[in-house]
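Lay summary

Proteins are chains of building blocks that fold into shapes. Our project writes down both the chain and a compact code for its shape. Here are two examples, one after the other.
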Amino acid sequence: MGVGISNWRLARAVAQCGQLGVVSGTGLDNLLIRRLEDGDPGGHMREAMAAFPIQSAVDSLQRRLASRPHRPGGPYSVLPLYKLGSGASRQQASMLAAFVEVWLAKQGHGGQVGINLLTKIQPPTLPTLYGAMLAGVDYVLMGAGIPREIPAALERLALHEPAEVRLDVAGASSDKAYRVSFDPHEHWEHPSAPLRCPRFVPIVASTLLASVLVRKTTGRIDGLVIESPSAGGHSAAPRGELRLDANGEPIYGERDVVDLNKIRELGVPFWLAGGTGNPRALQAARASGAAGVQVGTLFAYCEESGMDDELKHSVLSYAARGEVRVRTDVRASPTGYPFKLVEWPDDPSAGKDRRRVCDIGYLREAYVTPAGTVGFRCAAEPVDVYVKKGGAREDTVGRRCLCNGLMATAGHPQRRRNEIEPPLLTSGDDLVRIGEFLAGRDRYRAADVVDYLLGTSAPAA
């Protein structure tokens, strides 16, 4: 769900309907900064911050904001880029932001709330998880990688014990392992009673990965989300040699179809994702043995989602007429994963040549520098900077800054030198068929989506 689209309001609305509401955990710390600098309408951020048990972290963030007053219409503050061994204040911003999002999502109901993280974004993972756990998060979902170390880390964090995960470093020798560590005791002397350990559900796109995670992970796997290439955001690349169709999109084949018979044999609940945003898909999923489905696209355009309202309704108006396209771009993401992009006639980013800036840096790649230290680079940063860091110039072609673009899609575009960051919109393939659900409407709520999927009511014009 990108950055801030599946926000606390949306997750809470879904949980109130008796389903699992999930907040996106990507970019929450910088998103919190921007919400505060926009004035925190309704005071929700500060209400949640007041409930955070480590008030020294709140004080630290407030001092940072006070030292750099935000001018309305001016550029937002940005947090320091994560690096190997980032200090306590940087980790606390991630902890606090995750707590705020989950705490708000859990207010006013007895439903369940989860958080979704990308495995490939490694440095903020542990403080983000800890902050979410302090707020009582019920589920952790992680895809875009192999999160084998997360269940054990969750168990340690629940006891307020130090945890660590492997950091993938390009150019590292096979006998050298880099780790990202997090110790709760660095942030408060007397932690609370042990926390409840959330259930862990990896998001996978292959039968083999599902089997490896369930059978070889240290710790408990509580279920699986089986994602197809039609889902929004990042997708797994096709197995084997990359082949492109006439539109330059990757061609998926039989090798990319997950064997649900083998998934059932693993003995854990599973949910299907990608192209599942209709009641027929839910019924088919249940008939296959799935516990249900994970739906993103329909919820992304509901009233409670964090997508910029003007952008949301612009896309919906064209989608209702069948005038949108969802393209799988193999070059857009600096990670190298295929990435879904929405194209429609009023796309404000169309034809714009964005000046390359990397000032958020979640998707940067860690690499070994000539001096033997760990540095970070991004194929979407300024080309000469990337090449100077040892990156290949050809790897920069077609890359787009997802961090800044997705933040703009959530209604918080950065402003620099009289230019405003253009949005970058991702959705699943279900977007091109959303007219069936809309049935003449131009807006709807999360509860309407739940009712539609469960067949408890039909969409009305």
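And here is the second example, written the same way.
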Amino acid sequence: MIQNGIIDENKPIKLVIIDELTEFFDKGEGEDELQNIEATFIRGNDDEFCMEYYFNPPKNPKSEIMQWVDKMCKRRDCIRIHTDYRDVPKEWLGKKLIESAEELKRLDIKMYNWLWLGLCTGIDELIYYMFKEETMVQEATAEQISQMKFLVAGGDYGQMNPTTFQVFGLDFVDKCIRGIDEYYYSGRDEGKQRSPSEYAQDFKKLKEKVENKTGMKLLVLFLDPSAKGLAEEIRRICPEVSIPTVDNTVNLGISRVQKMMSYQRLFLSPKQKHLIAERYMYEYDKDKIDKGKEEPVKENDHCSDAERYTVMGLWQYIKQILPNLITDED
């Protein structure tokens, strides 16, 4: 029993459970914070005390939390238990969830091992290692376009770096996102930078182009959160377009795009040639991986960022079309 931050020594706490342990390492002080918590609650216990820690293991076996686990396992009073969805009664999970796991096992064994078995599978330097151009690049047919509810775009803005808009449609019938078209301009490659007002005009032209092609309106743009000037220019000449605030949590966004690709729920158009090219170049920093950090190299990422903004912005809808998932971030 805790009163005003002080433990009642006449009623010592016997069990402390800490869930979502990765939060302590991602956003807190990690091992130091956990040691302080243990020291706080163990005080006054002479006979019986237990701390239980629960978490979904990260992909990287060298991550800080896994180093902490290895250290804890050397303690004589520590027991480590690893469980996955196969360890509980099937009726707890339901047929659909089990089918979803088995489908991912068929499509992407590495993602299955991490997402469903909780194994530290390691980090590929190539971020979207599961990309298969022969099956994941498809021009949307007229029938597939008719199945889409609406069009959206993701945008990444650069001054000398490229500025890009990537257009997608959400297909609720085939349960996937389909690429439609892209805009891409690199001031460095072209030798001339464009102003936000010029990029806004280019977005308007792209919008009109895809609307004429599909017969649907493009009414939402998930734009680089730092591109406030460009956002204002687009709002000025395209007042019907909504530009909501985008969650720019990079690793979470990458994880969601990876899941969509692994389940083959994300297709690109051949017109998105710069985004396709980035599939083969967008990488993690190898030196950072070896140190337990997952940080993409800030190169060849502009189209991928625009795509990630789109997936993050649409996630509430995407969750309805993805197979049943057990995730650690929703």
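What can we say about the second shape? Strands lie at 2-3, 6-7, 15-18, 50-53, 148-156, 163-171, 176-185, 218-223, 266-267.
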